[in-house]
Give the backbone structure.
Amino acid sequence: MLELIRENPFYELTALLALAALIGVIGQLLRQPMIVGFIAVGVLAGPSVLDIVHSADSIALLAELAIAVLLFLVGLKLDLKLIRTLGPVALATGLGQVAFTSAIGFGIGLAVGLDTITSAYVAVALTFSSTIIIVKLLSDKKEVDSLHGQIAIGFLIVQDLVVVVAMITLSAIGVGGTGDPDGSEHLLRIAGGGLLMLALVLVFARFLATPLLKRIAKNTELLLVFSIALAAMLAALGHGLGFSMELGGLLAGVALASTPYRESIVSRLSSLRDFLLLFFFISLGTQLDLSLLGEQLMPALVFSLFVLIGNPLIVVIIMGSMGYRKRTGFLAGLTVAQISEFSLIFVAMGVTIGHLTNEVLGLVTLVGLITIALSVYMITYSHSLYLKLEKWLTPFERQNPYRESQPAQNTQRKSYDAIIYGLGRFGSEIAETLSEQGYSLAVVDFNPDVVQKWNKRGIEAFYGDACDPDFIEHLPLNHTQWIISTLPRHETGLTHEDPSRSLISAIRHHGFKGKIALASYYPGERQQLHDLGVDLVLMPFKDAAAQAANILTQKSEKD
C-alpha cells in the first residue's frame, strides 16, 4: 500500500489528507486541539514512522505559503499607533527573554555534561519560540487583539529578528575566509534592504493601499488572489533580503491594515490559512529523526522543564518590573513555553558547519516535541492555569501596575445604568444606541485600541476580560443596574471556553444584585442561561430577523 502511495504525488497528497482527517476525527473525539493533531500528522507522515512524504519540495512550498498567509493575517490586525505604544515592552521583553534564557540555558548545558560550544548552541536554540504555533493558538482563542496577545506577537517578532542575526552569524562562520570573514558586509546589506522594504510598505500603506483595494474589491475573487499574491511577494522579498518569511508576510499585512477591506480579507483567508498550516507541520515532521532521540531523554527533560517553566517566568518578571499586571505577564509568558522550528534549523546549521553532532540535533528535536505538545495545552488552558498559580505570581507584580488601567476608587462610587462587556459589532451597536438615548454606560474590552477609542468619546472604558476575577472586583457592581455581555464562546476544540458564563459566576460571587443580559448564538441554550441567573437572553440573529419581519409586516399593512 505504501509503495503505491509513493508512486504518484497525487496519491501521496490524498494519503496525507486522509491521515489528517482521521487524526482530526480522533482528536475531536478526545477533545484535543487541532494543532496537536497537525503535529501528530507531521510525525506519523515523517520518515521515522510511515514515511509517506517523498514530494518534499512540494510540501515545503505549501508550508512556506502557509507561513506567508498566517503572518499576513496577523499583520492585518496590527495598528501602527499600537505598535508605537507596545514597541518598548515588546523590545524589552523580547531581548530580555533572549538574554536570560541563553545565559541560564548555557549554564544548564554545562551542568548536564555538554561541552562549551554545544551548550552555547543549545542555549541560543532555546530562546526561539514558534511564531506560527503561537499565532494559530491566539487566533483560535480570539486573543490576537488582547493586550497580552499583542505584546506576545511583538516580542515574537523581536525573536524573529534575533533569529535573522543568529543565522547570518552562522552563515558568516560557515563561509569564513571568502573575503568577508566577519559577515559585516552581509549584515549591512540586509539592514539596508530591510529599511528600504519598510519604507516601501509605509508609502504603499499611506498612499496606494486604499484606492487600489477600492478598485480590486469590486471582485471578491480578485481581492483574494491579490491578498495572497501580496503576502507571497513580500515574504519572498524578505527571504531574498535575508530576513525570515514571517517578517515579509507580516509587513504585507501591515501594508493593508489601514484599509477598510481588512476584515473582508481576514474572513476569506482564514480557512485557507488553516488548510495550509497542515503542510507546515507535515514539512516539520519530515525533518524529525526519532531514532536520534533515545539517548537524549534525561537532558531533554531538563531543558524542556526550563523552557516550559523558566521562559514564562522570565517574561512575567520583565513585564512585572515594567508595570504590567501579573495576569498579563503570565498569559504573554506562556507563549514562549516552547522552542521553534528555527531552533532545529539553527542546530542543523551547526551540524553542517561541523560544530555539532547529530546527537545534539536529536536532543533539540526531542525538546521541541515535548515543549510544543505541552505548551499547546498550557496556552489553551491559560486562564484556568492562571487561577491555580495566581498566588505564586504576586511577588512579580508591582504594588501599582500602572501600565494597565483599572477602575479607580472614584469610579467605584459612580452609578451606571449598564456595563457592557465586549465591543464587537453587536456590543458596539448596543453601546451606541444606549448612549444616544442618554443612558450612563461603562464599557469593557480586551483590545486596548478599542478601549482608547471609547475613552476619547467620553465614555468610561476599561481594559479587561470576563475571565479576570481581579478586574471584576474593581468594578462598581453595587451601583450598576445591568451587566450586558456580548462575548462569543471560544470554540478552541479543547476547553470550549465560554467567557460569558465565567462572567456570570464572577459577578454573582462578588455580590452583584442587578440584572444580567447575555448574547447567545445558540438557540438551544436559552433555558440553560435563564437557569444560571440570566435575566435577558439576546439572540442577535433571531432578534434581528424578528425585527426585520416586523418592519416588513408594518410596511405591507401601510401599503
